Amino acid sequence: MSRNNLPEDWDAQEHPSLEVLRQYQAGELSAPQSHQLERHLLSCEMCSDLVEGMSISQPYRVKSAVRETRGRLKNLLAQKKRQRKVFQWPAWQTAAVLLILLFAIGEVVYHQYFANHNHFKTQSAETKTNWRLTGYIEDHEGKAVSGATIQVVGTVTKTNTDGAGEFVLDVQTERVTILVSHPNFTAKEVAVNSSNHRVDVILRKAE
Asked: Which InterPro entries match (predicted)?
């Protein structure tokens, strides 16, 4: 059915013309006609969609929808930009963190390799050092102590003084501590090294 307006005997089951729908959307129908058409729109999904489409297609509504969409997009982009700024580190901070990490790794490598390597190298050098220690053992009166025992602490390497209080001891490490003992005297420990091949020790009488 095609009409440019609604007759009084219009059946709400019939579809109005597009012109009538446009007039309704533009507010050009009378109140009774609008009320009558609205009852039809409640039961007719097709006509209801047409009226809604006409409403959206109006120029001023389109412009308003475009402005609203642009505003939403602008706000969304600004929000994403702020989020990037929150999680993005400045270049100098990133460089500083990398330098600290490299320094820490260097420290670990040095202590794990070079320091231990030098330690083992020193131990190896000390182990391979063979030298002869000589010395003289006397009491507090300056008399030679014969029969005194001179032993490298921590080893079984030892020797005894002769009648003149002299001794000779072969040492296999660069630095050692010797223990000088005698039944009649208080034992005494003395640290020696290969830079001084002779040592004189004074023992005191045991109390």
From this structure: CarboxyPept-like_regulatory
| Full domain range(s) for residue 154 | 128-203
Is position 6 within any domain?
no
Residue 1 in tokens? 């059915």
Whole-number pLDDT of residue 56: 64
pLDDT tens sequence across 27-47: 787 888 778 778 877 878 887
In a domain, 26, yes or no: no
| Neighbour tally for 139: CB within 10 Å | 17
Token readout for 121 is 């190298």
Inter-CA distances, 164 with 147, 152, 181, 186, Å: 10, 21, 16, 19
Distance (Å, whole) CA 145 – CA 42: 130
Beta strands in the chain (DSSP E): 131-139, 149-152, 158-160, 166-171, 175-182, 185-193, 198-203
Instruction: Determine, yes or no, domain membership for 107.
Output: no
* Strands 131-139, 185-193: pairing kind: unpaired
Q: What angle is formed at CA 26 by the lines to CA 22 and CA 32, rounded to 5 degrees?
A: 90
Assign 57 a pLDDT band (cuts: 50, 70, 90). Answer: low
Please check whether residue 188 is in contact with residue 140, taking contact to mean a CB–CB distance below 8 angstroms.
no
DSSP state, residue 173: S
Q: What is the pTM of this model?
A: 0.40
Q: What is 139-163 written as a DSSP string?
A: ETTS-B-TT-EEEETTSS-EEE--T
